[in-house]
Amino acid sequence: MDQNIDTTLASIRTKVKKIKARNAKLESENAELRASIFEYLQQLEIYKQANEKAAQGIRTREIGDLSKTDKKVLRKDLDKYILMIDKCIATMKVKL
What we know:
By secondary structure, the protein is an all-alpha fold. It has 1 helix and no strands.
């Protein structure tokens, strides 16, 4: 009977050692995976910032392009008004 108990205890001790070893291995693997995830999250944040900066640059260029178009329209309108003013002045000179 003692032999049977000793064998059972030895078996339990062996299983406990295996479980402890496996637990240590899993904790180590978990720590590595957490570090890896943290690194990927940092890289993702860097990519997000770079993407936002690029998008902002594109928006700025689009605004600049719109300004160029608006400037052309404004110059055209100003030229038209200047021509009208010149005609009015010319008409006034003729009447005087």
